[in-house]
Structure formats: structure tokens, C-alpha cells
Amino acid sequence: MAAQFNHFDSAGNAVMVDVSGKDVTSRRACAEGKILVGPEIFARIKQGQIGKGDVLGTARIAGIMATKRTGDLIPLCHPLMLEKASVDFELNEEEYSIKATCIVKTSGRTGVEMEALTGVSTALLTIYDMCKAVSKTMEITQVHLLSKSGGKSGDYLRGAEE
């Protein structure tokens, strides 16, 4: 069955989806991505030696703030009252990378996948911004939705659809 694009009306005009008829349910989404920073930036972040300050602390706050502004950034995305937003990091010394994970929760009529993806992307972009004076060769990669729950379409777990 072909996917329907519900952000367009019958004339092909972009529209915000009407969610007023949907039930309010508990919604949760988790997204992740990583940034390859290289050995020098990796060591400086671990040692707290980036001139702009606490890289991961700042990136965490930026990611959380971004989840709350997703409706302002993504056209046709509903502004949501979020109940939880968190950003966590995992450092991988073998590949000199930092994985960011963002979890967002709400009770509402529409999901929080875009908020989780925006949060993780913004956190990674903040790491880039804070470290670009050391090197501009960093690479943001593998940004994706890990899971989501709630709503009419039900649960999603990356890899389970195969």
C-alpha cells in the first residue's frame, strides 16, 4: 500500500494536519545520532579544554531547548506542550565519536518524533559549533528515530520492521 501524504489537501496545497479528532494518548519518541570529532577534539572535550566552555553541558541544554521550539522550526509541525525532554551522551574513544540520544514525552493528539530528532540534531550541531575553532572536519552522521510509542499508528522500534 502506498503511503499517503496527509500534509497536502486535494488541490496539492500544504496544510497542517487536523488532529482535533484524534484521542489524547501518551506519546514518547527516542532519537539518536553521532558526531565524529577526531582525537584532538575528543581529548579536549574529555579534559574540559574547549575554549567556549562545557561542550556537553551546553549541547544538552541546546538539545532540550530545541525540542520545545520544533513547531517554530519545522513547517506544519504542531507546537506541543512537552512533559519530558532529555539529551544524553555516550563517548566512544575507539572512533573518537560522541553519540547523542534524545527522549521526548507528552500526552497529546500527535507524536513527538520530530521533537526528538530536532533535539538530537541541535545537540550535535552545538558540539560542532563549540569545537569548530579546533577543527572543521567533524562529521554529523546516523541521525535517526530509534523508537516511538503512542497514537493511532502504534509503536515503532528501529530494526523490528525487517
The sequence of SSEs as H and E is EHHHEEHEE
**Main sheet: strands, sense, barrel:** 5 strands, antiparallel
N→C terminal distance = 17 Å
Number of helices: 4
How many domains, in number, for the residues?
Answer: 1
Q: What is the percentage of strand-forming residues?
A: 25-35%
Question: Stretches where pLDDT falls below 50 for ≥5 residues?
Answer: none
CATH superfamily label: Molybdopterin cofactor biosynthesis C (MoaC) domain
Key terms:
elongated; alpha+beta; 5-stranded antiparallel sheet; Alpha-Beta Plaits; 29% helix; 4 helices
What is the topological layout?
Elements: E1 25-36, H1 38-47, H2 55-68, H3 70-73, E2 84-92, E3 97-108, H4 113-131, E4 139-149, E5 156-157
Antiparallel strand pairs: 1-3, 1-4, 2-3, 4-5
Helix pairs in contact: 2-4
Provide a descriptive summary of the structure in words:
With 162 residues, this protein is α+β, with helices and mostly antiparallel strands. It has a single domain, classed as Alpha-Beta Plaits, CATH 3.30.70.640. The protein has four helices and five strands; from the N terminus they run βαααββαββ. Strands 2-3-1-4-5 form a five-stranded antiparallel beta sheet, covered by helices on one side. A hairpin with a 6-residue loop joins strand 4 and strand 5.
Quick overview of this protein structure:
This protein has helices spanning 38-47, 55-68, 70-73, 113-131; strands spanning 25-36, 84-92, 97-108, 139-149, 156-157.
